[in-house]
Design brief:
With 196 residues, the chain is of the alpha+beta class. The chain has helices at 3-55, 107-115, 130-137, 173-192; strands spanning 59-66, 79-87, 101-102, 121-122, 140-150, 153-163. The protein has 4 helices and 6 strands; from the N terminus they run αβββαβαββα. The radius of gyration is 24 Å and the shape is globular.
């Protein structure tokens, strides 16, 4: 065997070991990202459930803004979708109904999100609109919403809903809404931990 063959075999062996090392490193980084993702979203779901239980609401959801499609004139379609949901037993999920929803259909709701007030609103006081009819069809009597922000940009909102048979307890509204604000802050922190 000559030295050229020996150096060639050593080169292949070193390259193989480096490739294996790179693969192992990538695997552990991927596992770390997956573990981080699961931990963040588990905490968010736990916070939503705590909020739903403390407010005695039927549903607590996080809806986040996105786009992905364009109108014929090139203007982006503004949409939102449910990304997290906690529902009281016996109430159907709204995740499929709030998927890729045009923001323009829910302007009365989005106006309340922009107001950024921890208040319980009655559906019957909403202006006649698609949003009002949607919530009436879902048998929602009351709702509350607060924006979720990242770097001072509204990226979504939390929506609490109460059913006609499960109305909010308005005598302790202040305490419930203070807790809502605290949970909102915790959820914003968890969302900020996400990495691209």
């Amino acid at each position: 065997m000559d030295y050229i063959d020996l150096f060639e075999k050593i080169g292949y062996s070193v390259a193989g070991l480096l490739g294996l090392g790179y693969g192992i490193k990538k695997f552990w980084k991927s596992k770390e990202k997956t573990d981080n993702f699961i931990a963040i979203h588990t905490e968010i779901h736990e916070l939503l459930t705590e909020l739903r239980l403390s407010g005695k609401s039927m549903r607590a959801t996080i809806l986040q803004f996105h786009n992905g499609e364009y109108f014929m004139d090139g203007i982006s379609m503004r949409k939102f979708s449910i990304t997290h949901e906690s529902s009281h037993k016996g109430y159907a999920s709204q995740a499929a109904k709030f998927k890729n929803v045009l923001c323009s259909l829910f302007i009365p709701l989005l106006n309340k999100v922009i107001d950024d007030k921890a208040v319980i609103y009655q559906i019957e006081s909403m202006p006649d609109s698609y949003a009002k009819h949607f919530f009436e069809d879902e048998n929602i009597s009351h709702y509350s919403c607060l924006p979720l922000k990242n770097k001072n940009i509204t990226v979504g909102f939390i929506l609490l809903q109460w059913h006609f048979d499960f109305p909010p307890s308005l005598e302790n509204e202040h305490a419930v809404m203070e807790h809502f604000k605290t949970i909102k802050e915790s959820i914003q922190i968890q969302l900020s931990y996400q990495k691209n």
